[in-house]
Design brief:
By secondary structure, the protein is α+β, with helices and mostly antiparallel strands. The chain has a domain of about 90 residues: Ubiquitin-like (UB roll) (Roll), CATH 3.10.20. The protein has 3 helices and 8 strands. A 4-stranded mixed β-sheet has the order 2-1-6-5, with helices on one face. The longest helix is centred in the middle third of the chain and has 10 residues. It is globular, with a radius of gyration of 16 Å. The mean pLDDT is about 90.
C-alpha cells in the first residue's frame, strides 16, 4: 500500500498515454541531478511507479530483480525527490530531474556512471563516498 494521496481516476491519464511502455510494461528512466545536470542513474519504471512518483514527488522505480516497486532510498536513505518529469519525443524514455540525498549508486558513489574508457582500459572516475555496508548492511541486492 502507498501513502499516495487519493486521486481522481483520470489523473495523469494523458501522461500514461504519452509513455510507450515496452512489452514487459516498463520504460527506462534516467535520473539527472537538479542544477548540475549530472546523470546519476538509469532504472526502469512501470505504470504504478510512474503514478506513485507523480503523486508523491518521491521517485519510485520498478525493480526487476525484486519483482516489485522500489522506492529509491527505502533501504539506503538516499531518497530522490522529483523536480521535473520529462518524456522524450518517442515516449520511450523518461528523464527525471531529481534532488538526490547522498549517493545514487548502490556502490556508494554519487553516480552509477563511475567508469570511463580511457584508451583500451576501463578507469574509475569517482571514488566511493559512502561505504555500501553503511547504506545497506551486508548482503544487500538492489
Amino acid at each position: 500500500m502507498t501513502d499516495a494521496p487519493m486521486r481522481d481516476a483520470k489523473a495523469f491519464d494523458d501522461v500514461i498515454a504519452a509513455i510507450a511502455f515496452n512489452a514487459d510494461g516498463l520504460v527506462p528512466a534516467i535520473a539527472q541531478a537538479e542544477g548540475t545536470g549530472e546523470v546519476l542513474m538509469m532504472a526502469w519504471m512501470n505504470r504504478d511507479a510512474v503514478l506513485e512518483t507523480l503523486e508523491t514527488g518521491r521517485v519510485c522505480y520498478w525493480s526487476r530483480s525484486r519483482g516489485g516497486l522500489w522506492r529509491k532510498g527505502e533501504t539506503s536513505g538516499q531518497v530522490q525527490r522529483l523536480k521535473d518529469f520529462r518524456i522524450d519525443c518517442d515516449g520511450d524514455t523518461l528523464l527525471l530531474i531529481v534532488e538526490q540525498d547522498g549517493v545514487a549508486c548502490h556502490t556508494g558513489r554519487r553516480s552509477c556512471f563511475f567508469r570511463s574508457v580511457r584508451g583500451e582500459a576501463l578507469e574509475t572516475n569517482q571514488e566511493v563516498q559512502t561505504d555500501p555496508s553503511v547504506l545497506y548492511g551486508h548482503g544487500h541486492k538492489h
